[in-house]
Every structure is written in structure tokens, then in C-alpha cells.
Amino acid sequence: MKKSLILILFICFTSFINAQINFEKGYFINNLNEKKSCLIKNVDWKHNPTEFDYKFSEGEDTKTMPITHAKEFGVDNFSKFIRAEVDIDQSSKYTQYLSHTRKPEFKTQTVFLKVVLEGESNLYYYEAGNLARYFFNLRNTKIEPLIYKSYLKEQAVAAYNNGFRIQLMNALKCSSMKKSDFEYLNYDFNGLTKVILKYNTCIDPNYKILKIEKPHKSNLNISVKAGLRSGTFKAQEFRGVLDPVHDFGNDSNLTFGIELEHVFGFNQNKWAISIEPSYQSFQSEITEASSTSSFINKFAVDYKSVEVPLGVRHYMFLNQNSKLSLSAYYILDFPLDSAINVQRGTSNYDVEIVKSTNLALGFGYKYLDKYSVELRYNGDRKNTGQNWLSKYSSISLIFGYTIF
């Protein structure tokens, strides 16, 4: 049963991952300035790509276009990238790696810049690794990096080179533009798009936004969870040699908890991490005839715990309202006054159930980003000491409702 469930989950995962390869209408411009309509694999790039996959029709094999062969490409109504040779500041933003010089540490690179805003003045964005940089230009002029750098002054005091404010103030000249528009301008999406939009509208009162690409936005979801769990528990004692296995069979109980899920903003919100503190229990009792006496031996499990699954989840969209998910969990288990009670003849003692960990897989469905259901298989958990070996595993059907 367990192997069959794992196989089913694996087949579902591979099938739906393949179904999630979205080729959408787009275009590219080659080095001969020829614009070609095509289908582009839209992976919602978090880091600016150096290549992209495309095909001219659904039935064709996928081709890869490197940055050296494309001057521009875009996914219709979604994103646009242009190739440019630009100076990229390599300075770190992390305190422990800050330099003591105010000047940017430029390196000239040929990259695909994401178009954030187009018009009389244009804004571009580049992200790779720990670097996140903005660039701009006026129509038909060279693209320049907007200068912003954190650095250390004397006595290890952090300071900031806000050169981008002077750059924009000198470049964006128009009657409605004021010094105050630049004095406290932030080096971020909201601040930079606001000032460039104001300039474009000042130059042309009939200006219409040709392109505005918002940065990736992450989401935090809070959900209540409840479901039914069917578990199995087996144990055996080591007394010089291993005793026969004591099989406590199946026990079904309710489980409930709360989940905090962080959905990443890249790759079209298909990836998430989660933490889900939950309560679960297992109770069972068996009797066995003693092989060495006339006594009847009794074994009773009373197992209650708080589990803390730490999960990685991949969503697979069916349509605008529905999506499937496959999750992998690393589970920390904290027992609550739990033990196996052993009665052998006149001997009566408890075997403590201790902290443990295990892995789990889940396959789920979510509707309207509110209602969810997940089938979850919890792998073997070994959670006894005192010369005892145990094995607990379970299958759960978990229902959820997202509050926020």
C-alpha cells in the first residue's frame, strides 16, 4: 500500500510538472533585426536569463536561443527583455562584505535587462544572485546604471552613495519636475517608477504607459487544517536478541493544526515553503500469549504529539481558480506524555516515546486560493528508546481553509 501510494504520487508529480511547461505567445528580435513571432517558455524569471526556450508551433521541438543571438524577446502581456552591454556594480549589500570606498565597483557585462517602464524615459531591472540593480535612459540614448551603493566610512559606520538622485535630477528636466521629487527618492520599484512616470507625463500629457513590469511579489498565507489520519505502529524489544514484532495495527484519529505558507513571487508563484504545527494521536492495545509462561502479555500504545512539518511545495495550475500541488516535508515530532505500556506477567513498565523525525510526501488540490485538500503519506518514524525499536507511519487526508 505504501509503495503504491509513493508510486502514484511520483507519477502525478512527473505528469503535472510536464503539463506545467507553459509556452506562451511572444516574439524575439534576432541580430538581423528580424522580429519573429513564436511561443516562448514562460518561467517568470526571478534572475535575468541568459537564454530562453522557444518554438514556432505547438508540435515543434523546443529550441534554445542564447543571448548572443537575440537582441530582444518578450512574452505577450507579461514581460520583455532587451540585450544591452552595461556597467553593473558588483558591490555587496551585506554589512560583513561592505567595502570602504564610495565608488561603485563596475564590471561591463552583456545581459538581458528586464523592461520595467517604457516611454520618453525608460527604466530597466537586473537581478542575478545577490545583485539587484536598476538602469535607465532617455529615448534613443545609452542605457546607464543608476548609482546606489552601501559602504563603510571610518569607525565602520554605514553610509550610502545615492548618486542616482543626481543622475535623474540632471536628466529628467521638465516644468513639472521639482527638486523635491529627487531629494529623498528611494532606490526601489515604487520610487523610481513614480518619478519616471511623472517625467514622461510632463513631456507628453497624452502619454500612455507602454510597459510597466512590477517586481516579483511574495505572499504569506495562513490556513487552518483538519483531517483524518490512519496510522500503523509496530515495536519490538531487544533483549540480547530481537523479540518478535508487536503489531498494533491501524488506528484512525483526527488531526488538526495551522499552516504558515510563504509563496515565492518568481516562477509565477509556483513554489512555496511552509511550516504546519499539528496535533496527532495513536492509541491501540494488543494481547499476546507468553511463549515462556501461562501469562498473557499486554502492550498498549498511547501516543500523542505535536508535529512540525517543514515543507517545500510546487503548485501546478489547472486554470485561474484551481491548482494542484506536490509537497515534500521534513517533520519534527514532539511527543506529549506518550509511552508504550508493557505488562509481562507481574512486570509492568512504560517505554517512553521520544522526539523523532521523518519524511513525508503530499499531493493536494486548492480552489480559489481558499479551500484545499491534501493526501499525505508520512514515512516511517522511529521514536522509542530503552532497547526498543519502533516504526510508526500514517496516511492522512487533510482539509484546509486559508484565512489570510
Q: What would you call the shape?
A: elongated
Overall pLDDT metric: 89
Going by helix content, strand content and strand pairing, the class is mainly beta
Q: What value does the Rg take, in angstroms?
A: 30 Å
Put simply, the count of helices is 4
Order of helices and strands: HEEEEEEEEEEEEHHHEEEEEEEEEEEEE
Biggest pleated-sheet summary: 12 strands, antiparallel
Percent of residues in beta strands? Answer: over 45%
Helix content: 10-25%
Q: How far is it from the N-terminal to the C-terminal residue, by CA? A: 36 Å
- How many strand segments? 25
- Low-confidence runs (pLDDT<50, min 5 residues)? none
Report on this structure.
- There is one protein chain.
- With 404 residues, this protein is mainly beta.
- Helices cover 11% and strands 56% of the residues.
- The chain is built from 4 helices and 25 strands.
- The protein has helices at 2-19, 163-171, 180-183, 189-203, and strands at residues 23-30, 35-41, 51-55, 63-66, 70-75, 79-89, 106-118, 121-128, 131-138, 144-145, 149-152, 158-161, 211-212, 219-239, 241-242, 246-263, 271-275, 278-289, 296-317, 322-335, 339-344, 347-352, 356-367, 371-381, 388-402.
- The strands form 3 sheets. Strands 14, 15, 16, 17, 18, 19, 20, 21, 22, 23, 24 and 25 form a 12-stranded antiparallel sheet that branches. Strands 1, 2, 3, 4, 5, 6, 7, 8, 9, 10 and 13 form an 11-stranded antiparallel sheet that branches.
- Strand 14 (219-239) and strand 15 (241-242) form a beta hairpin.
- 24% of the residues are buried.
- The mean pLDDT is 89.
